[in-house]
TrEMBL record:
Residues 77-344 form the Fatty acid desaturase domain. It comes from Stakelama saccharophila. Signal peptide: none annotated. The chain crosses the membrane at residues 66-93, 113-130. Pfam families: FA_desaturase. The keyword Transmembrane helix applies. Residues 1-28 are annotated as: Disordered. Keywords: Membrane, Transmembrane, Transmembrane helix. This is Fatty acid desaturase. CDD domains: Membrane-FADS-like (cd01060). InterPro entries: FA_desaturase_dom (IPR005804), Fatty_acid_desaturase (IPR012171). The keyword Transmembrane applies.
Length: 366
């Protein structure tokens, strides 16, 4: 879900209404940076299953425990605190969907199934909504173009686009209930609806023109199994509420926490890139400069950009590097590359500065 104010990376910089832009999308790749990034991270490229499982299980335990407290505590103040903890912990757990699209599943056996059972199905965001979609965002010839499902030139759009972008995320839990409790069953008996559901309502994307292809092979069979489970869970939730077995107040808390998770992710998406590319294919270096790192000493990115998402630019440079290695990779590259390297130009101080930059860009207009 996650590109492009083009930071000066050795190529000629542009200016739009006094606002500095990044290098041209067609700027030549900085081969030294790309070579150094590959060489310095070979020894930390292996997935460590223990870290993945421990992190996921801890996040799930804290998240669902806090959600239970938020729904049952009589003291409003403590219920709100528990709700905030639930949002942050479940957001971290949900963020592993990003890792699922990059990791080789043979190196992390059972993790996709475990993640779907613990997070994807209960939160109605199963892995197939991202797998087969996010990889298109990383395709060199698609990134930042109209064929990129996770790209819009947000910095060049009208100011009202940004609050609308966030509001849509706030309503996501209701949309997911409709998607899985109503549209999934209906699409089984209405073939034309099935195609619409797959093409338009089966991907975590922000590009409204994106249309997903019908799945095939083993992935299609996996999709059907996971979608059936998510559909049954969504129907069960609604039946429990309708019969009074799940109090309406508890259901409202669940929706509020899910909405909070979606909003944080959407805000994080707003600052994951600089969003100024107007549809041209971009070099790898330009894609990197169009993306954002928020490294230490900033502390809060651990909460709003968890599971390695604070190193989003570095991730675009080394998409197969596991999340637990990104911090070390950043330290190594920062020390090895001189101050003139484009590598240093994608580091930003934090969410407020990035948000202000994006808002100011929309206000300047085109």
């Amino acid at each position: 879900m996650e590109s492009s104010l083009r930071l000066d990376g050795g190529a000629t910089a542009g200016v739009r209404d006094g606002h500095p832009r990044t290098a041209s999308p067609r700027a030549a790749d900085d081969k030294q940076m790309l070579r150094t990034a590959a060489e310095l991270t070979r020894d930390i490229n292996a997935v460590r299953p223990g870290i993945y499982w421990t992190d996921l299980i801890a996040s799930v335990a804290i998240g669902y425990g806090a959600l239970y407290l938020a729904a049952t505590l009589a003291a409003v103040g403590w219920a709100v605190v528990a709700g905030v903890v639930a949002v942050l912990a479940l957001y971290r757990a949900l963020s592993f969907i990003h890792e699922l699209t990059h990791v080789k599943h043979a190196t992390l056996p059972g993790f996709r199934l475990g993640w779907n059972l613990l997070v994807g199905i209960p939160m109605l965001t199963p892995s197939f909504l991202y797998e087969g979609v996010h990889n298109l965002h990383h395709a060199k010839t698609r990134y930042g173009t109209v064929e990129d499902p996770e790209y819009l030139p947000l910095a060049l759009m009208n100011p009202w686009t940004l609050p609308t972008f966030v509001l849509v995320a706030a309503l996501a839990p209701v949309g997911l209930l409709i998607r899985f409790a109503i549209l999934s069953p209906l699409s089984l008996v209405i073939p034309s609806l099935r195609r619409v559901v797959v093409e338009r309502y089966s991907s975590l994307s922000i590009n409204p023109s994106f249309r997903r292809r019908m799945p095939g092979g083993a992935f299609a069979a996996q999709w059907v199994r996971i979608e059936a489970a998510a559909s049954l869970w969504a129907i069960t939730l609604l039946v429990l509420v309708a019969t009074g077995n799940l109090p309406l107040s508890a259901f409202a808390v669940m929706l509020a926490v899910s909405s909070g998770v979606a909003v944080i992710n959407q805000v994080r998406t707003l600052v994951a890139h600089l969003w100024e590319n107007e549809g041209e294919a971009m070099s790898v270096t330009a894609q990197y400069l169009d993306s954002v790192n928020v490294p230490p000493p900033a502390v809060l990115p651990m909460l709003w950009a968890p599971v390695g998402l604070r190193y989003h630019a570095l991730h675009h440079l080394l998409p197969s590097l596991p999340y637990h290695s990104l911090g070390e990779a950043h330290r190594r590259l920062g020390a090895a590359l001189d101050e003139q390297s484009p590598y240093h130009k994608s580091s930003h101080t934090g969410l407020p500065a990035l948000t202000r930059r994006l808002v100011m860009s929309t206000l300047r207009g085109r």
